[in-house]
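Quick check before the chapter quiz. The format below is the same one you will see on the exam, so make sure you can read both the input and the output lines.
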Amino acid sequence: MTVSYSLKVSQSSMCSFARLLFMWTGSIYKLIWKEFLLYLILYYILSAIYRFALTNEMRQSFELTCVFFKDRILQVIPLGFILGFYVSLVISRWWSMYKTIPWTDGVCQLIATHIQGADEEMRKIRRTIVRWLNLTIVIVFTCVSMPVLKRFPTIGHLVKAGLMTKKERLEYENLQTPHVKHWLPIGWACNLARKLREEGKIKDDIALDLLLKKFQDIRGDVGGMMEYDWISVPLVYTQVVTIALYGYFLAKLFADQFIDIDMATGNKYDGFPIDFYFPVLTVLEFFFYFGWLKVAEAIINPYGADDDDFELNEIIDRNFQVGLLIVDDLYDHHPPIEQDMYWDQKEFCLPYSKSTAKKRGPRAWLGSTVDVLLLAKDFMTAAPMHMGRTVKSPGKDNAETGATELKPMADEEGEAKINIPGTVTTGDDEDKKPKGVTEEDRPWRKASSKKGKKKTEVVITPGGAKVKVACELPADVAEMDVIASQDCANAETTQI
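Here is the expected output.
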């Protein structure tokens, strides 16, 4: 069965993950306790032999062996890299295997929509097609999953379960082929759909095409399950990971022994300053690495009977029951059509309960910049600049083309610059008149010192935020659109 703990971690709180450590089903303890117990037994056997059974010369040899394993062997095995890549591959494969499991809701909705008729014959046809689709799924499930195979070990069990009739069994068994015949019920469904189209019980070819595509989607999904069952993670990779892990902890049996002293010099070995009777750090490392490998071992074939494997038997029951409800009980049925509560309302909000209203957050799906208060100058429109190409100008025009050719002009430092007639400068450059621009080309205006009229305009950003822009126009400028004006003085913005 699949171990679900989503509700336990639905809200972040103190020790929310720590509480999961006390679960047994699907836990790391259940997966590795046998290997862990064996490892501790071997560790203490070596420790007892070293402490109580060896002579001084033998103790010295044992100590040198431990130092050798610690300094040399453990550095050779890149366990973290090998194991991490392997588990990542297995988890990606595990999720892909789940996505191939077929669900019949969509095809049943299409069957109920396009195969019409309330009489006994049409009801029988719709239910039969649903049964054939589920029969295909069950046949494949028995080929890839031991729990499903134990539930339906023979064709007779399928007949007894109501997934296949006796006449269908005869046709199924009479078709001689060395291959799995999961595609046969799908073929029956396709042939029946074609016959219904010819008889006019499926109204058009588009409806027939939709049905056949859905039939083939189910066939593709179960085919994918067969492929995942056939093509495993390369055996050599699994062997390399297993050898690396077991070799690593075999070396750790010696490397993590708390040896005494160098019998030749009488000095403590580096790395063994304290004598621990229980290898705490070794145990933690064992849990990390062996737990990692056991995760891959448990989910490399999720169609099995491990705690975290997929409940294919439950999926069979659910698909068959829901499919028959859709095409039979719910056929051509819906509640009466009524006006909804918000018929005359343009903006509304669905009610919250008291417990959820307090936790209601800001509006979502508006973008992170929706509440940013822009400066007034960000709302002002400036004329575009055209660098290095022919542009229209209100100045002296070419008689033939009606355009003014822009050419670089040298500034005081001899650097060539492009001066654009008709452009706008802002800020500190407002009182500077560009070279090459005459009053005839564009009257160069400066904000009037006289107090003008104040104008306020509410603008809406593309994201939906409302901003009030207050602008004081110079006295010598006619009232105009605030956003189009280049002459606003003392402009201010306020979020609404």
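If your answer matched, good. Residues 387-434, 437-450, 479-487 have pLDDT under 50 and may be disordered.
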